Each structure stands twice: as structure tokens, then as C-alpha cells.
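Hi everyone, sorry if this is the wrong subforum. Our group has a chain we'd like a structural model of before ordering constructs, and none of us has done structure prediction before. Sequence below.
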Amino acid sequence: MNFRRTFLKLGMILTCCLVCSGCWSKVEINERTFITAMYVDKADTPGEIEVTLNMPLPNRLSPEGAGTGKNPYAAVSATAPTIADAIERIQTDLTRKISWGHTRVIVFGQAYAREGIEDTMEWIARQPLFHLSSYVMVANGRAKDVSDLTPVFEEIPSDVLREFSTEENLLKTQMLSIFTSNKMNQGFACSMLDAKKTKMLSEEGEPKKWVSQVGGSIFRQMRMVGTLSTNEARAVAWAGQNLDSLTISVQTKKQKASMKLYNMRSDIHVKLQNGEPHFVINLAGKAELNSVIPVLKAEDIVGVTDIEQAANEKMNAHLTQAVRTAKKEGADILMLGYRLEWRYPQIWKKLRPAWIDYVKNDLQFTVNTKINIQFVGSESSF
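Answer:
Right subforum, don't worry. Here is the predicted structure as C-alpha cells:
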């Protein structure tokens, strides 16, 4: 009995030692470089791509590196026939191992996006540390030109691009949505970026790179096929419930008014008309007037109604035009196919193989917008 107890104790001790042995393949944190953004462009050499990686520089982020006046981040590029080869070339020149656990932004150059982003997306899908919540955008030109933007309000350039999406000011497109839309033979839309140099007071009047969101890009089967204006992109973001607030201006017969929309909601459902799917896209939101010329009195119900109608017509037109633009290219940017599958799975099963052609030639939809002005506001009397 004593021998058996001793044997059991030794077994438990050995088991605990194995469990607490630690990671055999660990890499110290000070031996890693954390990639925060990746930019992919079509290279000048035919058949090759250029990859640029943004990364913070820990030696300049630390207190010892503060006050040097140097940027606490870097951008490193390499050109190769494939994504994997380009990244390997970058890794060869780095003193730290690349880590993808902090990557939150992927930007594609427009020329590369129009040829197709399949190879990059396939490579990302096989990276276990790459977050599916990372945001995807397209540069109106070269993606590399966006990598050296001036982060006036943030620490590093990638933080600016990430905040573009998290603040929900325009389109908010994540990796997961792209993968799922591709599997379902649908499309998607993402924000379009434009980089230009401008004199900045915060940089002592020196010309610096400023990046703006200038609309949206339309994708079908991992290939960019069209663009959206800024107003159309905002309407699509509203329909996708990715817009936090919006300011619009309208002109009626009697007033010129500006308002801020909030509590913005959307509802997309499908019904059958003559045996064919018909999609109904409902937009709803509340508003408060920022300015009205001439001054609108609180009791002027007719004036408020006219402004509401003008705002509804304006947003309705923007979303209708956006869907028509995408429909022309066979891109289901609102992922209407999901609604069809949920409501009528047998019809979706029949249409799914030819969904692109169906969207292009036979898609039927209606847009309804209901903006309710809650606050007319007041003006001081002089």
C-alpha cells in the first residue's frame, strides 16, 4: 500500500511538471515587431506586387526615446511575385520577428483591387493570428501613399485608419464580412481613401500627408468593379447599420435647412411579388435642426413637414443610386441574398448559383426613408 501511494504521488508530481513546463516555442516580446497595418499595391514590374507594413518603434515609444523629434513608427516595403515572398523579404531585413496579432487595417491600392484581391485574402485566411475583425479599405491611387499619412490626433498612421471605421463615419468593412460574402457569391463595399499633401498648422505650416475618406469602392467576387460617391457610401453605411450620425442640408420652396441625424436604424426584408423576391430597404432616424433660413417657428408644422420630406427624398435618392450602381455590376453590396436565404431558403437555393446574374438583371428593390425631426431648436432674440 505504501508503495502504491508513493507511486501515485510521483505520478501527480510528474504530471504537474509537464503541465507547468511553459511554451517550448516562445518568442520574447522584445524580439517581435507588431504589424499594425498592411498595404498592398500592384508593382511596376508585371506580375509582381508591393507590400508595405506599418509598425511602431518601441525604442522611440519608450520614455528614453521621447523628445527625439523622430517618428515613433516605420513603414517597410518589398516587391515580389507573391504576398508570402514579399513578407519574407521584409522579414529578412528586420531584427525582430513579425507578429500579426495587432494588425487591424488592410489597405489595397486601386489598381491592385481592380485586378483582384484573392491572393492576399487567401494568404490572410491561413494566418492564425490575423484578426477577422480587421478593417479593409481601398486607396484612390497607391496604398503605399497612405502609409505615411501624418497622424495629427493619434500616435501612428494605422490608428487614424482604424478610427475611421470604429467611429462609424462612413463604411465599416471587416475581413469576416468579406470572406462570408465571397462564400455566398455576393458583393461588398468598403471605404475609399484619398491622400494629398496640405499645409498643417500643427506641423508648423509644413506640407504634410493628409488622408480623407472620399466615398466607397464596390467589389464583386474579390474584384473592385466600381465606386460610390461619399453621399452614396453614407447611405449604404446607414442601410448596413454602420453609421453613427449624419449631417445633411436640404432646400425646400420656403426654407434652407441643415440637420443632424441620430438614432439611425435600418431594416431590410424580402417578400414575394408574383413569385419573385422583392427587397424592401427601410431607413429610419431622428433629427435635430442645426439651422433654418428663414427662421422656422416651433409652431410651423407645415415647414417642418416640408423639411422632413426633402430630407427623406434626398437620402432615398442616394441609397437608390448606390444600389443601382452596384446592381449594374452584379454586386450585392447590401448582402440581400442573406435575407432571401433566411426568409425563403428554397428560392435562395435555386438562385444562389446564378446570383450575380440575377442581381444584375432581375433584382427588384424599394427604398423607404423616414426621418423624424424631434427638435426644431430656438434662436436668441436681439
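For your construct planning: The chain has a mean pLDDT of 86. The CA atoms of residues 280 and 366 lie 5 Å apart.
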